[in-house]
From TrEMBL:
UniProt KW Cytoplasm keyword: yes
Cell compartments where the protein resides: Cytoplasm
Taxonomic source organism: Lasiosphaeria miniovina
Highest taxon, organism lineage: Eukaryota
PROSITE patterns the UniProt entry points to: ZINC_FINGER_C2H2_1 (PS00028)
Family: Belongs to the REI1 family.
Start and end residues of each C2H2-type domain: 19-41
Name of the protein in its database record: C2H2 type zinc-finger-domain-containing protein
Predominant cellular place of this UniProt entry's protein: cytoplasm
Pfam family of the protein (one): zf-C2H2_2
Record GO biological process: ribosomal large subunit biogenesis
Length: 353
């Protein structure tokens, strides 16, 4: 379905309705979200990945229409050149496989439906999509872009290290547990798929929440009235649109303080993470260091309880490490021959020490 060209405001200025990828500004947040799903924006995101400047909407439409024929011509030219250079390059490079919503991005296992595939990637590989309630596109579109990064550019989703093949990139992500995406960096390419301009204090915010819930219903994202969100992994965190201090973390008072916290977050610059968001990401990284069985056990607790358990485990580990260090130091001092006055050489020769 062709998306009608959005109405661009006369004065371009950096705001919550400004697209940094395409360098265009929009009058409303609805136009900004519809632009994020348009082919023009997707093409500019691909150009940004390879380091090219964005195209204007007219030129981008022409590039999209000609992309199929240009790709076929380039593939045939590369095949001819490779056959002339060496026998090793006789086989033309295989095109990237087509995106299948039911196929796992990391082990290529196919599920019965997209929901089952997301559940498989979450449980088997620890896939985590942060701030899923603020996605400007549907979850399947984001998965299609992740498929492009893995199978076309052979890059890791988390550290963006490049490999020679898609299989090598998959092995790297599985071995390093890099099956997550990071939006903490200001220049993260994934920020183009998010929209943090919505607030929860007015009618437009409620409408945006309904739209986000409809986009993420495929992965069973549950957002309650108190502002908490259940992630695909089963963990419950507070709404990431809040930006108040830590005294609002009490579970019993979230429903009463959600409205005031949304007003403070509306004044925060778009694209910058709040203190609570950074704490949530630190919690996710801490849980990612645990085993799958421990992660399953931790999913039964709330976010504050998970932080407390992880902090207690770190303290116990540090205490045990210090005790082991003291014990080894004491044993080494007792085994020091220069401190053993009763030591006698068993063999003739110069005295030790």
């Amino acid at each position: 379905m062709n998306t009608p060209p959005p109405t661009i405001s006369s004065t371009l200025k950096i705001s919550s309705n400004f697209c940094n990828t395409c360098n265009v500004s929009f009058d409303t947040a609805e136009l900004r979200r519809s632009h994020a799903k348009s082919p023009v924006h997707v093409e500019n995101v691909r150009r940004r990945v390879v380091g090219l400047s964005p195209l204007d909407p007219t030129a981008a439409q022409e590039v999209i229409q000609k992309s199929a024929s240009i790709k076929l011509d380039s593939c045939s030219d590369e095949a001819d050149l490779s056959s002339d250079e060496s026998a090793e390059d006789d086989v033309a490079e295989e095109a990237s496989p087509e995106f299948v919503a039911e196929q796992c991005l990391f082990c290529n296992e196919e599920a019965a439906a997209f929901d089952d595939n997301m559940a498989h990637m979450r449980k088997a590989h620890g896939l985590f999509v942060p701030d899923i309630g603020h996605l400007a596109v549907d979850l399947e579109t984001l998965m299609q872009y992740l498929h492009l990064i893995i199978f076309s550019y052979h890059e890791c989703l988390f550290c963006h290290s490049q490999r020679s093949t898609a299989e090598a990139a998959q092995h790297h992500m599985l071995g390093k547990r890099h099956c997550i995406i990071d939006i903490t960096s200001d220049d993260s390419e994934y920020l183009d798929f998010y929209d943090f301009s919505d607030g929860n204090g007015d009618g437009s915010g409620e409408e945006g929440e309904g739209e986000s819930a409809s986009r993420t219903s495929n992965v069973q994202i549950l957002q309650s009235d108190d502002g908490s969100t259940r992630l695909p992994s089963g963990r419950i965190i507070t709404n990431r649109s809040t930006a108040s201090a830590s005294q609002h973390r009490q579970k019993s008072s979230r429903a009463q303080k959600q409205e005031s916290k949304s007003d403070s977050d509306a004044a925060a610059p778009s694209g910058q993470l709040t203190k609570n968001q950074k704490r949530d990401l630190a919690l996710v990284k801490g849980l990612g260091a645990l085993s799958l069985s421990d992660q399953t056990m931790m999913s039964r607790f709330s976010a504050p309880e998970q932080r407390s358990i992880i902090a207690a485990k770190k303290r116990e580990t540090a205490t045990a490490r210090r005790a082991q260090t003291r014990y080894l130091r004491r044993v080494e001092m007792l085994g020091n021959q220069t401190l053993m006055k009763h030591f006698k050489n068993d063999v003739p020769g110069p005295r030790n020490g």
